[in-house]
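Quick question: what would this complex look like in 3D?
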Amino acid sequence: MNTNGAVVNATDVTRRYGEGEAAVDALRGVSLAVAPGELVAVMGPSGSGKSTLMHILAGLDKPTSGEVWVDGESITSMGDTELTKLRRRSIGFVFQFFNLLPMLNAEENVVLPLSIAGEKPDKQWLDELMAKTGLRDRRTHRPSELSGGQAQRVAIARALVSRPAIVFADEPTGNLDSKTSGEILQLMRDSVDTLGQTTVMVTHESRAAAIADRVLFLADGLIVDERKDISAADVVSLMQSLDS
Amino acid sequence: MLQVALKGLAGRKLRAFLTGFAIVLGVAMVSGTFVLTDTLKAGFGEIFTSVYKSTDAVITGRSAIGNGNSGNIAPSLPASLLAKVRSLPDVAAVQGGVSDQAQLVGRDGKVISNGFAPGLAFSVNTKGTQQFNPLVLVSGSWPRGSHEIAIDQSTADKQHFAVGNTIGAVARGPVQQYRITGIVKLGNVSSIGGATMAIFDLPTAQTIFGKEGKLDGIDVAAKQGISPAKLVAEIKPILPRIAQVRSGTQQAAKQVQDTSAATSFLQKFLLAFGGIALFVGIFVIANTLSITIAQRAREFGTLRTLGATRRQVMTSVIVEGGVIGVLASVSGLFIGLGIAKGLEALFVSFGIDLPHGNTIFATRTVIVSLVVGTVVTVLASLLPALRATRVEPIAAVREGALPPSRLTRFGIPAAAGTMAVAIALLLFGGLAKGATGTERLLAIGLGVVASFIGMALAAPRFVPPLASTLGWPGAHVGGVSGSLARENAMRNPARTASTAAALMIGLALVTAVGVLASGIKATFEHAVDTQFLGDYALTSENGFTPTGVASENAVRKVPGVQVVSGVRAGEARAFGSHINVTGVEPNVGRVIKITWVSGGPGVPAALGRAGAFVSSTYAKDHHLALGSRLPIELPTGQTVPLAVQGVFKAPNGGSPFGNVTISTSLFDRIYQEPQNVFAFVDMAGGVSPANTGALTSALASFPDAKVQTESAFKKQQESGINVFLNLLYVLLSLSILVSLFGIVNTLVLSVFERTRELGMLRAVGMTRRQTRRMIRHESVVTALIGASLGIPLGVGLALLVGEALGSFTIAIPWGTLIVFVIAAIIAGLLAAIFPARRAARLNILAALQYE
């Protein structure tokens, strides 16, 4: 198994939708590796293939060719049940629309992945997590009683609760106002810094990219650029050049 | 706007299909009922038209007291009438015949019986032409003399009898063996149902049935050019009081009419179940449409922003309902043809094998089915349509559901009000002495319907606690699937409530029927236990047709028999209405315990030729006391003066005696063919295998009779109730099936609505198996809510109705109720199969991106 210590590793991944003349190549040969404790942002104009890439890395979609390793295991040929178990164990998700269960309270939503796996949460860890995400006094609130930012904090805590090898965040600030977005991005950065949580985030927000350790730029299904420690202003100008 | 409605419908084919299915079954039941009863009616018509095809006039006996419950109580005619009719100027030919009932005996020595179908017996005139004979020979020749018989083709085929074989037949006396000379059938009639036919020559038939010198019917042919009406007019004046004449066509019409009473009862009975299924269908459709409308709030909002009025929105929903209704009705109409066949098979399996002709698909069937199905669906779409009008244009850009139904605010008072109306109606139906039977039945029916509506209105209040309790086991053994299922069942109480309410209706009805039946059985058993003093009961093989007195006499000769006491039964008229008359022997008190109100144990032996004893209710209704005069009028027109010598109290579960009981010595003098309904036997040594064996072998030549111990007697008498009970269960299961589709609909729509949630759950590690389990648990919780609303409601209804009828004790059949709960769980599991599979197969990506 050649993953070079990377948490996520992809080699020459392609993804084609449809067949014949109507076929669309969403990914045309992408290779990448995400190191432990790294926060990687994936950026690109709409239709660049960034969401497809994340879905394939997370085992939600299958590549047409190429191979993907997550947490040391090749996921490309896994069956549904194996993949499901892998997601339980090694992957956390943060969605644009929070996707909380309305009938569960904040804490129940947070521990949901553990409940699904039939595990009991570690009380101390849960307390720490709730404190870190600022949800200590919101534990028994239902999603309908939470603001957007609070809901997304619950979602982040839910992604972190099983101490996954990797967290995938799909436009985590896409549904939030500017101030709240900043808080959420800070929380994600914080989880990388203090917990060492490896994270891959798909975004089109320049501020989000600016907190990343590394930013991958996708266009037409290929990685066209890769920057470390880039500023928000640089991101904007790079994106403009990609759009044109 | 209309186009929007239709296109929208076409875009949601699966949902439209699932919605419509709730009405398809009800319509199919309605259509199937019409097809079946029309076909039965045509079958009877075919038989009677065939029987009287070549007869200009028919002379039959006329009961002086009209047709009773058992129908055929007309007295026989004197054979001398035949010569008088023949000598009339316009008569070309006459023929007299005897018709009665006799049972054929199979090769196993048992009577051939197809459930409740009769064993018919006819005479044929072997001399001269067969111009009046509706029967045709399939093979062989007509029977002649006292040792020959012809039998019907269907029995010959089924029991493997052929011309030249010997077959037993039993009528009044012991079984007699006959040589089969012919196999016959009734003209071109396709089916005579399960009835068997035994054909003898006239003198033999007269001997067998004790009708020497008598005839049951005389067929008359008119001379050329004489109309049947003229012939009838000519015959009328010479007839005795106990005879009547009709033209052949009139007679056929009369007999069709007599049977149509039965078929139209059957029609109403079956339509009631179609009605119940449609009623349940209304709940299912209203609920399904409400859910889809809530899910389409954004669509309606968009239409409103584009300028659609509230009225247009409402119309589009109603049009949608109407189109679903029409399509479902058309499907139901044709599925009804299959249902008709299914119902017929069902009846045959319950021993009710009726004649049937070609399948009749009447215009009325088409119209009624289509109109009922469509109207019901449109009615069901009215409330959802009203809700749709309350969608504001802003919903176009807003995430979120409909405002809650305004009705929920009035839920509890409305439920309480409806429930009060229901109870009032039920009490009126049960207790109102002045009201007619129809009025009371109608009140009970409406009361039951009102109780369902009341319960359904209150149901949303019960859902959270019920779901929480009923979901508890699942939540504790089913892991996260179980607890999420419990939460899901509680998150939209109105939806869960109305889904469960549909199942509640079916379960309440089967429960009510089950509780009432068990009460009736318990009361009957109690009545037998208290009255049955003897060791054995002697009855006919099937327990309900009367048997000849000869079997009683055969038992009398068995060594060790101490008492044999027969109970005869007949009909008469007293105080202007029909009564059942029973005849008892002087020793009846030794085998049946009689509770005397007036008179005493000496009464039966002292009845003589003018005494009678009556039940206390009959005495009360007609102000009878010891010494009261009680003249009864017999079918022959003869009036017998009786005097009341005793009054007894019959237990709630019934007594072996009719309203009026006389001595057998009088009974046998005044009734043409006395028969026993029961005889009771007391033996030295009581019930023992030896005694049972001795009695059974004494009855070897009476295959239509048998002896039973008290418990076997109870069991057999109850088997009739059980047959009817099972028939009701099968018919009610149709409405349970409809409600099952309601659960399927709700779950499919919920899965659809929770697509993104399901995607998230799968993304964070829920397996397909866990997903399926979650849906299954929710389905079972919903079904159990239906059961916990329906079963107590059913018990309550049975208690109310039972209390109102007042004549029997209530016995709650706990075992049966547990079976119903298990059935509800199974129903829930079945309903979940399809939705669970859909949920488990959702593409996670598509689910996450789903909006």
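Answer marked as accepted. Chain A has one domain: 8-243.
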